[in-house]
Known about the structure:
By secondary structure, the chain is of the alpha+beta class. Helix content is 16%, strand content 38%.
Amino acid sequence: MIMAVVNPYLLFSGNCEEAFNYYKSIFGGDFGYIGRFKDMPPQEENQVTEEYKDRIMHISLPLSNGSILMGSDSGADNAIITKGNNVTLSINTSTKEEADKCFSGLTAGGTVHMPMNQTFWGDYFGMCEDKFGINWMISFNEKANQG
């Protein structure tokens, strides 16, 4: 059995910060992280425009017992966010091997959006859509699992 935590990841079309301030007013607590597109390291293939630089790249609001509500605005890739594709399930595994196993299983017959790889924020991370059209993010953070 894979030991994993599942968290909802919500996608927005520019109003992520407003939505998360609303959720914070309901659930309480403090944001665990707020990152904007301008905070990303420069990437030749993905230039951040003025329009997108202050949008939310990633935000997290801890809810309880390790459950985290996460989200972001769609990036400069002009992805169309609609009801139905605006929720992704984020899986945080306890080992890198579990992350690879989850990703491999979920991508069988599906689509890889971002292969598993080490990221600038420190996680081993990948994104995919399974053969049923469900979007997934798989993540392993070695530092978080050393406790």
